[in-house]
Amino acid sequence: MMYTLAEQAMKSILSLGLGKSGVVLEAPRPAGGVLPHQEEEALAKLWLDITKAEAGCCKVMTEVRNYRDSIRGIQEAEEKLLKDLGASGLTAVSPELRQATDEYLSVVVEMKAKSEEVSSGVQQTLGEPVKQYHVLYEHLDAIRRRRDAQVAVVLKCQDKFDRLKLKGKRTTDVLVERDAALRTLKELNSQLLSEAGKFHNLRHTYLQPCIQAYVQTQVDYYGTANAHFSSQIQASRGAHQIPDSQYEAIMGEHLAKIKALKIVAT
Hints:
By secondary structure, this protein is mainly alpha-helical. 86% of the residues lie in helices and 0% in strands. Residues 1-23 have low confidence and may be disordered.
Protein backbone atom coordinates (compact mmCIF):
# COMPACT_ATOMS: atom_id res chain seq x y z
CA MET A 1 0.00 0.00 0.00
CA MET A 2 2.87 2.35 0.81
CA TYR A 3 4.37 1.90 -2.62
CA THR A 4 1.05 2.59 -4.27
CA LEU A 5 0.80 5.91 -2.46
CA ALA A 6 4.35 6.81 -3.42
CA GLU A 7 3.84 5.95 -7.07
CA GLN A 8 0.64 7.98 -7.29
CA ALA A 9 2.24 10.97 -5.63
CA MET A 10 5.32 10.87 -7.84
CA LYS A 11 3.33 11.04 -11.07
CA SER A 12 2.55 14.73 -10.67
CA ILE A 13 4.74 17.31 -12.45
CA LEU A 14 6.40 19.58 -9.92
CA SER A 15 7.42 23.14 -10.78
CA LEU A 16 10.91 23.93 -9.54
CA GLY A 17 12.06 27.48 -10.09
CA LEU A 18 10.25 30.60 -11.18
CA GLY A 19 8.09 30.14 -14.24
CA LYS A 20 9.64 26.81 -15.23
CA SER A 21 8.22 23.34 -14.80
CA GLY A 22 10.29 20.55 -13.40
CA VAL A 23 10.49 16.88 -14.29
CA VAL A 24 8.35 14.01 -13.10
CA LEU A 25 9.92 12.56 -9.97
CA GLU A 26 9.28 8.95 -10.87
CA ALA A 27 8.94 6.50 -8.00
CA PRO A 28 11.33 3.55 -7.68
CA ARG A 29 10.00 0.41 -9.28
CA PRO A 30 8.53 -2.21 -6.91
CA ALA A 31 10.93 -5.11 -6.56
CA GLY A 32 8.29 -7.84 -6.67
CA GLY A 33 9.29 -9.36 -3.36
CA VAL A 34 12.94 -10.00 -4.25
CA LEU A 35 14.05 -7.38 -1.71
CA PRO A 36 13.22 -7.42 2.00
CA HIS A 37 9.80 -5.91 2.65
CA GLN A 38 11.22 -3.56 5.28
CA GLU A 39 13.67 -2.04 2.77
CA GLU A 40 10.99 -1.59 0.11
CA GLU A 41 8.69 0.06 2.63
CA ALA A 42 11.44 2.38 3.88
CA LEU A 43 12.30 3.47 0.34
CA ALA A 44 8.64 4.02 -0.56
CA LYS A 45 8.04 6.12 2.57
CA LEU A 46 11.17 8.17 1.97
CA TRP A 47 10.20 8.81 -1.65
CA LEU A 48 6.72 9.84 -0.57
CA ASP A 49 8.25 12.30 1.91
CA ILE A 50 10.41 13.72 -0.89
CA THR A 51 7.33 14.10 -3.06
CA LYS A 52 5.42 15.95 -0.36
CA ALA A 53 8.38 18.24 0.26
CA GLU A 54 8.69 18.98 -3.46
CA ALA A 55 4.96 19.72 -3.64
CA GLY A 56 5.30 22.12 -0.71
CA CYS A 57 8.24 23.77 -2.44
CA CYS A 58 6.11 24.21 -5.54
CA LYS A 59 3.43 25.98 -3.51
CA VAL A 60 6.04 28.33 -2.09
CA MET A 61 7.38 29.08 -5.56
CA THR A 62 3.85 29.78 -6.81
CA GLU A 63 3.38 32.36 -4.05
CA VAL A 64 6.79 33.84 -4.85
CA ARG A 65 5.81 34.27 -8.49
CA ASN A 66 2.52 35.86 -7.41
CA TYR A 67 4.37 38.25 -5.13
CA ARG A 68 6.83 39.20 -7.86
CA ASP A 69 3.98 39.83 -10.28
CA SER A 70 2.13 41.89 -7.65
CA ILE A 71 5.12 44.16 -7.11
CA ARG A 72 5.35 44.75 -10.83
CA GLY A 73 1.59 45.29 -11.04
CA ILE A 74 1.64 47.92 -8.30
CA GLN A 75 4.42 49.83 -10.00
CA GLU A 76 2.64 49.71 -13.37
CA ALA A 77 -0.68 50.77 -11.81
CA GLU A 78 0.89 53.78 -10.12
CA GLU A 79 2.64 54.82 -13.31
CA LYS A 80 -0.65 54.51 -15.21
CA LEU A 81 -2.47 56.56 -12.56
CA LEU A 82 0.05 59.37 -12.94
CA LYS A 83 -0.23 59.21 -16.71
CA ASP A 84 -4.02 59.35 -16.53
CA LEU A 85 -3.92 62.29 -14.12
CA GLY A 86 -1.71 64.20 -16.54
CA ALA A 87 -4.00 63.38 -19.46
CA SER A 88 -7.12 64.41 -17.54
CA GLY A 89 -6.18 68.11 -17.55
CA LEU A 90 -7.08 68.56 -13.89
CA THR A 91 -3.53 69.34 -12.90
CA ALA A 92 -3.58 72.27 -15.35
CA VAL A 93 -6.45 73.96 -13.51
CA SER A 94 -5.50 73.00 -9.97
CA PRO A 95 -2.05 74.07 -8.75
CA GLU A 96 -2.55 72.10 -5.53
CA LEU A 97 -3.37 68.92 -7.41
CA ARG A 98 -0.43 69.51 -9.75
CA GLN A 99 1.91 69.83 -6.79
CA ALA A 100 0.51 66.70 -5.15
CA THR A 101 0.87 64.85 -8.44
CA ASP A 102 4.46 66.00 -8.82
CA GLU A 103 5.25 64.83 -5.30
CA TYR A 104 3.56 61.51 -5.96
CA LEU A 105 5.53 61.18 -9.20
CA SER A 106 8.81 61.63 -7.37
CA VAL A 107 7.94 58.78 -5.02
CA VAL A 108 6.83 56.49 -7.84
CA VAL A 109 10.05 57.18 -9.76
CA GLU A 110 12.14 56.44 -6.69
CA MET A 111 10.17 53.25 -6.01
CA LYS A 112 10.59 52.00 -9.58
CA ALA A 113 14.21 51.08 -8.98
CA LYS A 114 13.26 49.35 -5.73
CA SER A 115 10.46 47.41 -7.45
CA GLU A 116 12.87 46.20 -10.11
CA GLU A 117 15.41 45.32 -7.44
CA VAL A 118 12.84 43.25 -5.54
CA SER A 119 11.70 41.45 -8.68
CA SER A 120 15.30 40.54 -9.44
CA GLY A 121 15.96 39.70 -5.79
CA VAL A 122 13.11 37.21 -5.72
CA GLN A 123 14.77 35.25 -8.52
CA GLN A 124 18.18 35.45 -6.85
CA THR A 125 17.04 34.51 -3.34
CA LEU A 126 14.70 31.64 -4.22
CA GLY A 127 14.39 31.00 -7.95
CA GLU A 128 18.04 30.25 -8.67
CA PRO A 129 18.76 28.35 -5.42
CA VAL A 130 15.76 26.07 -5.98
CA LYS A 131 16.94 25.29 -9.51
CA GLN A 132 20.45 24.58 -8.23
CA TYR A 133 19.07 22.31 -5.52
CA HIS A 134 17.05 20.42 -8.09
CA VAL A 135 20.26 19.61 -9.98
CA LEU A 136 21.06 17.29 -7.08
CA TYR A 137 18.02 15.22 -7.97
CA GLU A 138 19.56 14.32 -11.34
CA HIS A 139 22.24 12.26 -9.58
CA LEU A 140 19.60 10.63 -7.39
CA ASP A 141 17.41 9.85 -10.37
CA ALA A 142 20.33 8.26 -12.20
CA ILE A 143 20.76 5.83 -9.30
CA ARG A 144 17.01 5.16 -9.33
CA ARG A 145 17.08 4.30 -13.03
CA ARG A 146 20.00 1.91 -12.54
CA ARG A 147 18.20 0.27 -9.63
CA ASP A 148 14.97 -0.07 -11.61
CA ALA A 149 16.85 -1.62 -14.53
CA GLN A 150 18.46 -4.09 -12.14
CA VAL A 151 15.05 -4.96 -10.69
CA ALA A 152 13.99 -5.95 -14.20
CA VAL A 153 17.10 -8.13 -14.57
CA VAL A 154 16.47 -9.92 -11.28
CA LEU A 155 12.78 -10.49 -12.00
CA LYS A 156 13.64 -11.85 -15.43
CA CYS A 157 16.14 -14.28 -13.89
CA GLN A 158 13.63 -15.26 -11.23
CA ASP A 159 10.99 -15.93 -13.85
CA LYS A 160 13.42 -18.05 -15.87
CA PHE A 161 14.41 -19.97 -12.73
CA ASP A 162 10.77 -20.66 -11.86
CA ARG A 163 9.97 -21.93 -15.37
CA LEU A 164 12.98 -24.25 -15.45
CA LYS A 165 12.21 -25.56 -12.00
CA LEU A 166 8.59 -26.18 -12.98
CA LYS A 167 9.76 -28.19 -16.00
CA GLY A 168 12.26 -30.09 -13.88
CA LYS A 169 15.24 -28.81 -15.80
CA ARG A 170 18.69 -27.82 -14.58
CA THR A 171 18.60 -24.47 -12.73
CA THR A 172 22.16 -24.10 -11.45
CA ASP A 173 23.36 -21.57 -14.01
CA VAL A 174 20.30 -19.35 -13.83
CA LEU A 175 20.37 -19.53 -10.04
CA VAL A 176 23.96 -18.25 -10.00
CA GLU A 177 22.99 -15.53 -12.46
CA ARG A 178 20.00 -14.51 -10.34
CA ASP A 179 21.96 -14.40 -7.10
CA ALA A 180 24.66 -12.24 -8.69
CA ALA A 181 22.02 -9.87 -10.09
CA LEU A 182 20.30 -9.77 -6.73
CA ARG A 183 23.52 -8.79 -4.95
CA THR A 184 23.95 -5.91 -7.40
CA LEU A 185 20.32 -4.89 -6.84
CA LYS A 186 20.76 -4.85 -3.08
CA GLU A 187 23.82 -2.62 -3.43
CA LEU A 188 21.96 -0.19 -5.70
CA ASN A 189 18.91 -0.23 -3.46
CA SER A 190 21.06 0.56 -0.42
CA GLN A 191 22.79 3.36 -2.33
CA LEU A 192 19.45 4.81 -3.41
CA LEU A 193 18.16 4.78 0.15
CA SER A 194 21.29 6.56 1.36
CA GLU A 195 21.37 9.19 -1.39
CA ALA A 196 17.63 9.83 -1.20
CA GLY A 197 17.95 10.39 2.55
CA LYS A 198 20.79 12.89 2.01
CA PHE A 199 18.81 14.70 -0.69
CA HIS A 200 15.77 15.00 1.54
CA ASN A 201 17.64 16.03 4.68
CA LEU A 202 19.66 18.68 2.86
CA ARG A 203 16.56 20.62 1.81
CA HIS A 204 15.96 22.45 5.11
CA THR A 205 19.61 23.43 5.58
CA TYR A 206 19.89 24.62 1.99
CA LEU A 207 16.61 26.50 1.60
CA GLN A 208 16.13 28.10 5.03
CA PRO A 209 18.63 30.96 4.46
CA CYS A 210 17.15 31.46 0.98
CA ILE A 211 13.68 31.94 2.43
CA GLN A 212 15.06 34.26 5.09
CA ALA A 213 16.72 36.36 2.38
CA TYR A 214 13.44 36.43 0.46
CA VAL A 215 11.56 37.69 3.51
CA GLN A 216 14.24 40.34 4.05
CA THR A 217 13.69 41.65 0.51
CA GLN A 218 10.01 42.09 1.37
CA VAL A 219 10.81 43.91 4.60
CA ASP A 220 13.24 46.16 2.75
CA TYR A 221 10.73 46.91 -0.01
CA TYR A 222 7.87 47.86 2.30
CA GLY A 223 10.18 49.79 4.60
CA THR A 224 11.46 51.82 1.65
CA ALA A 225 7.94 52.44 0.34
CA ASN A 226 6.72 53.57 3.74
CA ALA A 227 9.70 55.91 4.16
CA HIS A 228 9.19 57.51 0.73
CA PHE A 229 5.47 58.07 1.13
CA SER A 230 5.87 59.34 4.70
CA SER A 231 8.53 61.77 3.50
CA GLN A 232 6.23 62.95 0.72
CA ILE A 233 3.41 63.65 3.16
CA GLN A 234 5.67 65.50 5.58
CA ALA A 235 7.23 67.58 2.79
CA SER A 236 3.83 68.40 1.34
CA ARG A 237 2.46 69.50 4.68
CA GLY A 238 5.54 71.61 5.34
CA ALA A 239 5.21 73.29 1.95
CA HIS A 240 1.58 74.20 2.51
CA GLN A 241 2.09 75.35 6.11
CA ILE A 242 -1.51 74.52 7.03
CA PRO A 243 -3.02 72.51 9.88
CA ASP A 244 -3.21 68.76 9.45
CA SER A 245 -6.99 68.73 9.49
CA GLN A 246 -7.21 71.34 6.76
CA TYR A 247 -4.54 69.61 4.68
CA GLU A 248 -6.30 66.26 4.99
CA ALA A 249 -9.59 67.87 4.00
CA ILE A 250 -8.02 69.38 0.88
CA MET A 251 -6.34 66.12 -0.08
CA GLY A 252 -9.59 64.29 0.57
CA GLU A 253 -11.38 66.64 -1.79
CA HIS A 254 -8.77 66.06 -4.50
CA LEU A 255 -8.97 62.30 -4.01
CA ALA A 256 -12.74 62.44 -4.30
CA LYS A 257 -12.38 64.24 -7.64
CA ILE A 258 -9.89 61.64 -8.80
CA LYS A 259 -12.20 58.76 -7.83
CA ALA A 260 -15.03 60.45 -9.74
CA LEU A 261 -13.06 60.53 -12.97
CA LYS A 262 -14.32 58.25 -15.70
CA ILE A 263 -10.84 56.83 -16.25
CA VAL A 264 -10.76 55.72 -12.61
CA ALA A 265 -14.18 54.13 -12.79
CA THR A 266 -13.15 52.09 -15.81
